[in-house]
Amino acid sequence: MRFYSTNTPDTLVDFGEAVLRSLPADNGLYMPETIIPLDDAFWKSWKSMSFSDMAYEVVSTLLQGAIPTEDLRNIIDDALNFPAPTVRLDDQHHVLELFHGPTLAFKDFGARFMARVMAWLTRNSDDPLTVLVATSGDTGGAVASAFHHVEGTRVVILYPSGKVSGLQEKQLTALGGNITALEVDGSFDDCQHMVKSAFLDQETARKHNLTSANSINITRLIPQMLYYFESARQFDTPPVFVIPSGNFGNLTACLIAMNMGLQVKQLVAATNVNDVVPEYLASATYNPRPSVPTLSNAMDVGAPSNFTRMLELFGNDWGAMTETVSGFAFDDQETRDAMRQVHEQYGYTIDPHGAVGYLASEAWLTAHPEDTTIILETAHPAKFPETVGEELGANAVEIPERLACLANEPKVSIPMAAKPQALIDWLQA
Ligand SMILES: *Cc1c(COP(=O)(O)O)cnc(C)c1O
């Protein structure tokens, strides 16, 4: 199993290098050299397999032996130990709930799988793998939780002191064990600059096995294919997946699943006013630009990092992409209205990201009223208490125990000056 960089297609690297490097040196993105379709034997039995067996068949077909059978099965079972139910609202609308993981967002799928794959790749090394992350909020929490208790790894998180929410800070500072939080007396940009400097310091980077848990790491897309298989197999005909999108990793994962043979009627990309991709689908013009803040803030992306991968999968053919992918964009007022409408009509509490998805499903169903849509609910509504409270009342959503219990845990962090050398000295000590 080899990977090429989208900027230099004839240079191939193996799976381990693609995962541990995350980003090719030429600033492209890693893509699988070949995507092998699942065979007839799989499609004869996929609907009756256990989730674990189905997941193993899909991932092992993609990875072609890069991880031996038993190790791969353990990684999948350990990483994906929470459900992803598809909930019916009515015949036309379903919700695929991706928030049952430890940090209540779909990023748990990718981060937990990546953590275990990285630990497996470095299992014979004497030094632990050190994952360095700068965070302004949610990413650090998902990465910290994913690596917590994973042997042979440690995570060092840098966050700007006083600039993350109380519960977010607890997600970084209350875990302990192999997770260390550095509380930087500066901004998020300072944190990012410090992390970059540590990677550039070759001696430090080598000595401490530094790696990044960057969101464009190709391993994060692999487990994200699995919930499309899991959901689609519950229907007699190929469904329409509606995907609230920002960097388009989730949508790219579905495209890879479709290249392996998964039958999907259409992909609907749902965005907020950061609508670079819907605009491209409508006009064939790609115009990345600075993002603007919205209520669905995890989708506030003005230059989607996986767009290159989408183009690659369609051979850079706009027309081919529009046959498979449709796009719709909505503003914050529409998002608020949709949260209320879903609650009134179905008694279902949807978060602002899922609400954008709901609006896109309605737009699609206007022209295709008989279709079955499945909206991806990418985060738990409890992560957005302000917006949900304003629209649906303070009692509309309960904070799940696994998040609420963090509030009582002590915060443990190491204060640090906003200087690159401070981080390097700390790593050396
Ligand atoms: C990251 C995120 C998204 C966007 O996913 P992409 O794969 O970047 O398109 C959507 N919703 C939530 C809640 C997220 O955290």
UniProtKB/TrEMBL annotation:
<dbReference type="InterPro" id="IPR037158">
    <property type="entry name" value="Thr_synth_N_sf"/>
</dbReference>
<keyword id="KW-0028">Amino-acid biosynthesis</keyword>
<dbReference type="InterPro" id="IPR036052">
    <property type="entry name" value="TrpB-like_PALP_sf"/>
</dbReference>
<dbReference type="Pfam" id="PF14821">
    <property type="entry name" value="Thr_synth_N"/>
</dbReference>
<dbReference type="GO" id="GO:0004795">
    <property type="term" value="F:threonine synthase activity"/>
</dbReference>
<protein>
    <recommendedName>
        <fullName>Threonine synthase</fullName>
        <ecNumber>4.2.3.1</ecNumber>
    </recommendedName>
</protein>
<keyword id="KW-0791">Threonine biosynthesis</keyword>
<dbReference type="GO" id="GO:0009088">
    <property type="term" value="P:threonine biosynthetic process"/>
</dbReference>
<dbReference type="InterPro" id="IPR029144">
    <property type="entry name" value="Thr_synth_N"/>
</dbReference>
<dbReference type="InterPro" id="IPR051166">
    <property type="entry name" value="Threonine_Synthase"/>
</dbReference>
<feature type="domain" description="Tryptophan synthase beta chain-like PALP">
    <location>
        <begin position="96"/>
        <end position="364"/>
    </location>
</feature>
<dbReference type="InterPro" id="IPR000634">
    <property type="entry name" value="Ser/Thr_deHydtase_PyrdxlP-BS"/>
</dbReference>
<dbReference type="Pfam" id="PF00291">
    <property type="entry name" value="PALP"/>
</dbReference>
<dbReference type="InterPro" id="IPR004450">
    <property type="entry name" value="Thr_synthase-like"/>
</dbReference>
<comment type="similarity">
    <text>Belongs to the threonine synthase family.</text>
</comment>
<feature type="domain" description="Threonine synthase N-terminal">
    <location>
        <begin position="2"/>
        <end position="79"/>
    </location>
</feature>
<comment type="pathway">
    <text>Amino-acid biosynthesis; L-threonine biosynthesis; L-threonine from L-aspartate: step 5/5.</text>
</comment>
<feature type="modified residue" description="N6-(pyridoxal phosphate)lysine">
    <location>
        <position position="107"/>
    </location>
</feature>
<dbReference type="InterPro" id="IPR001926">
    <property type="entry name" value="TrpB-like_PALP"/>
</dbReference>
<keyword id="KW-0456">Lyase</keyword>
<keyword id="KW-0663">Pyridoxal phosphate</keyword>
<dbReference type="GO" id="GO:0030170">
    <property type="term" value="F:pyridoxal phosphate binding"/>
</dbReference>
